[in-house]
Amino acid sequence: MTDPTTGDSSRGIDYIAVDESERFQGLRRLQRSFIFPMAAFFLLWYFVYVLLAAFATDFMSQRVWGDITIGLLMGLGQFVTTFVITMAYVSFANRRLDPIAAEIRDELEKAEARS
Amino acid sequence: MTTIPMAAEAVKNDPVLNIAIFGAFVAVTLFIVIRASRNNKTAADYYAAGRSFSGTQNGFAIAGDYLSAASFLGICGAIAINGYDGFLYSIGFLVAWLVALLLVAEMMRNTGKFTMADVLSFRLKQRPVRMAAALTTLAVCFFYLLAQMSGAGGLVSLLLGIDDKLGQSLVIAIVGVLMIVYVLIGGMKGTTWVQIVKAVLLIAGAVAMTVWVLALHGFNLNTLLETAVENSPNGDKILGPGLQYGANPLDFLSLGMALVLGTAGLPHVLMRFYTVPTAKEARKSVVWAIWLIGGFYLLTLVLGYGAGALVGPEAIAAAPGGVNSAAPLLAQALGGSLLMGFISAVAFATILAVVAGLTITAAASFAHDIYANVIKRGQNADPAGEVKVARRTVIVIGILAIIGGIGAQGQNIAFLVALAFAIAASANLPTILYSLFWKRFNTRGAVWSMYGGLIAAIGLIVISPVFSGNEKAMIPGIDIAIFPLNNPGIISIPLGFLLGWIGTVTARTAESRALAAEMEVRSLTGYGAEKAVEH
């Protein structure tokens, strides 16, 4: 390859074949089936919150008890969902994605060693 | 309430003590930097700390890099004065990390080496894409640097009791020189350690103050809010949104977009992912960063309302340093000049650490992308020569930052940081996401999206009210403000995505299918990613 900074493709691996293999496509589907809906969800929830804060100030300023307002609870809710999504993703990636990725990587490293 | 005498007292402070605490911090970190630099031999050592940091260490360093003066002083001050609207900043800054965690961090780590441009040019034409990515990197770093440097000058007036322009310029120069020394000697390893130390100090200080504030209010958030409402000229308006952005909700939407989409495109944040050995450690570092940053922003909520309750918004606005002085004044009200000295030193350390991180990112991008790959065309690339260029670039950037910081004195820090986020979200994020997730994406799409997003973001700022047309603007004398919003994000971010799509579908040349397949396989499996350097 003319490019020194990206990996050298001279290791004799047919990436197109790996890319099209059933197992790799399965990994790709699995990853995307988690991250895309999750990203859509948190962005939607964030923008609903931002739009309410921008345009529905009276609603957000309503008190729930004492001086705690709906806006404050929804803001804290953003923190909670962020933490929950983080933990859910880590558990999903560790349990479901990592084993398949490691398996494909090991095979590629073996193929490289043979060539 | 006893807030008024307290606040008047608060303006008095002890410059000698502040300087002594700050000096101690510099001495300790310099010692760490020199020790850490012993193993700096290769380019991977200098740019990526030999990829030897653990996910936990890197998580602290990311928090240290991200919790800048704008987050700490700016958000505390905004909450103290405008209440709820200040809190909105923290939410955008935090939720943004989910974009980094889910969509960017691990795949970036698996496909790149030192810079953001490594990933973007992986399967596209090297020179045009690298050049564009390096320019957007430099633009983001420059605006972020200006914000931090001008913040340093502004802080001094409060913390050290220096309020003439010459004294402030001198302090900006000292911060700049210290930063050059850290980065030259320590490289990425030294910079990372400074950020880790700073993150620990900052979080410890914030936790102590939060517990103290809550203890004074019977550990009841509601009592704290009641006191803050009593002391605010705006009364219970501080409990809901609208005080700061009520007049222009579209502007707020624009800012919200820039905040949530900017983080995952910030080059100095992306570069931190290369300091860990694997994608799994990159994931772990983002998780640590999310907990630390999220926890910290929850503390700033208490600190901000606490400053409103114990110091009072009017006293804060009247203090030298204005809004940005809320956190140090709160420290003074709680623990006297010793605590204020500590918090002030932490604030300085914050600026120093963030500035060092930005400088090494900009220097790496210039040396690795522009010098080694565009000018030298990646031919007979000599890593030692590249590091030499990077070191010289550090000095140039340091000098530019000092000059820019002196010129930008008195500018609004939050605006400059929001501009950096808007550029990152418009120029960098579309190309990052397209390259990682859209196989058809090609060189024309990347170049159009990066230059288009960059030009749109900067252009809209130039014709916005923050640049000209009113007394608070950067250039109050002229009036070319035809764009009504302070933040360009709402136009420039969709434009960046749109241009990337149009460029891609109109280009006739197809990119290498093999490279696209290679990038996809490597991004998901981590095969071929650079491992930690053994010493």
Give an overview of the whole structure:
The complex is a heterodimer of chains A (115) and B (535). In chain A, strand 1 and strand 2 (68-69) form a beta hairpin. Chain A is mainly alpha-helical and 115 residues long. Chain A has one domain. In chain A, helix 2 (22-55) runs antiparallel to helix 4 (70-114). A two-stranded antiparallel sheet of chain A has the order 1-2. Chain A has helices at residues 15-20, 22-55, 57-60, 70-114; strands at residues 63-65, 68-69. Residues 1-11 of chain B have low confidence and may be disordered. Helices cover 75% and strands 0% of the residues of chain B. The longest helix of chain B has 52 residues, at 165-216. Chain B has helices spanning 3-11, 15-36, 43-48, 55-66, 69-82, 84-111, 116-120, 126-159, 165-216, 221-231, 249-262, 267-272, 279-310, 313-318, 326-375, 383-407, 413-437, 443-462, 489-506, 513-525. Chain B has 535 residues and is mainly α. Chain B has a single domain, classed as Sodium/glucose cotransporter. Chains A and B meet through helix 1, helix 2, helix 3, strand 2 and helix 4 of A and helix 6, helix 10, helix 11, helix 13 and helix 20 of B.
